[in-house]
Each structure stands twice: as structure tokens, then as C-alpha cells.
Automatic annotation (TrEMBL):
The keyword Hydrolase applies. Keywords: Hydrolase, Protease, Viral release from host cell. Residues 18-159 form the Prohead serine protease domain. InterPro entries: Peptidase_S78_dom (IPR054613), Prohead_protease (IPR006433). Signal peptide: none annotated. It comes from Novosphingobium aureum. GO terms for molecular function: peptidase activity. This is HK97 family phage prohead protease. Coiled coil: none annotated. The keyword Phosphoprotein does not apply. It comes from the Bacteria. GO terms for biological process: proteolysis.
Length: 180
């Protein structure tokens, strides 16, 4: 019997923009998400198998608002010691322009990703789930709050700001998450 995998989504908030390109982390290995009934973490290497597939970049998980994809080369993904990094060339579409403007203003909520877990791809220790293998379907730029803490959303360009200004933005985001 084959059981259909349920698409799951998790959010992060580390994004930088340079010109029409967003860069950052769609997921990190350092955070623990409190998902209500259970807590969840991502193990290093969890995305390794997914990197060879065709992954979409969307706005708010909306398949009608495609921002890029790995198959066309407009989305590039890699896994490093920190997490799943991405580089996304934004299209000159309404959705792409909206994302760029929101990034410039510092209004983006973060990044999210949609995935399924292949059989044997997770393990449980009480109410804590560890994702060890993820079948990545999409990453999304989101306007809401992230499920995982420990990441930052910022606009990156030559004029974007000093290290002190970026740190101040990160502190404001951390404060906003406490109120969310």
C-alpha cells in the first residue's frame, strides 16, 4: 500500500537582496521550531538528496506566483554547515517587483519551504522530531513570521547599511517575533 506524503511547510527569516537577486537561507540547522504539539529540528545533510531535483521559488507558497526554479537556473540551492542556502534571480513580474520592494523596505517576514518526508526520513525523541531527509518541493518568500528562530531577513546591496544597522534590524525583527 502506498501512502501519499503530506506536504509540510516551515518558515525562516534570513534573506538579503543585491540588485534583483535575493540570497540567504531558506532553512537552518541551528533552530528548533515549536509547532504546537511537537518540536522540530533539521539535521545537517537533510537537504542533500533534494538538491538534484527541480525546486520552485514561490511567493507565499502560491504556485501562481513563481519567482524562479532550479531547472531554469534562476534559483540556486546549496547546503552548507549553516543550512539550506539559496540565491534567487527575481523576475520582472508584479510578484518579483513586490518582493524586491518589500525587501528594500525591510517588510518581508522571511523564508519558508514546502517538503515531504520520505519513509525513514525523520526520527522522534518523545515530542521532538528530527528531519534527517527532506524531499524539497519549493521554497517561498513569505510575508508572515518564521516557524524557526535564529535567522534574519535583510536587504543586501552596496548602500544597504553598516554592520551596526543590520544588527539593529535583526534586533527589531527578534522583538517583533516576541510579539507575534
Amino acid at each position: 500500500m502506498v501512502v501519499a506524503a503530506t506536504l509540510e511547510r516551515r518558515a525562516f527569516s534570513e534573506v538579503r537582496a543585491a540588485g534583483r537577486r535575493l540570497e540567504g537561507y531558506a532553512a537552518t540547522f541551528t533552530g528548533m521550531a515549536d509547532l504546537g504539539r511537537f518540536r522540530e529540528r533539521i539535521a545537517p545533510g537533510a537537504f542533500r538528496a533534494a538538491l538534484s531535483g527541480d525546486v520552485l521559488a514561490l511567493l507565499d507558497h502560491d504556485a501562481g506566483k513563481v519567482l524562479g526554479r532550479t531547472r531554469s537556473g534562476t534559483l540556486r540551492l546549496s547546503e552548507d554547515a549553516h543550512g539550506l542556502s539559496f540565491s534567487l534571480d527575481l523576475p520582472d513580474t508584479q510578484a518579483g517587483r513586490d518582493v524586491l520592494l518589500l525587501a528594500e523596505r525591510g517588510d518581508l517576514g522571511g523564508m519558508s519551504f514546502g517538503f515531504t518526508v520520505p519513509e525513514g526520513g525523520d526520527s522522534w525523541d518523545g515530542t521532538t522530531r528530527t528531519l534527517r531527509s527532506i524531499a524539497l518541493k519549493e521554497i517561498s518568500v513569505v510575508c508572515a513570521w518564521p516557524a524557526y528562530e535564529g535567522t534574519e531577513i535583510a536587504l543586501r546591496s552596496m548602500e544597504w547599511g553598516t554592520k551596526r544597522q543590520r544588527r539593529a534590524r535583526a534586533l527589531k525583527l527578534a522583538e517583533a517575533r516576541r510579539w507575534a
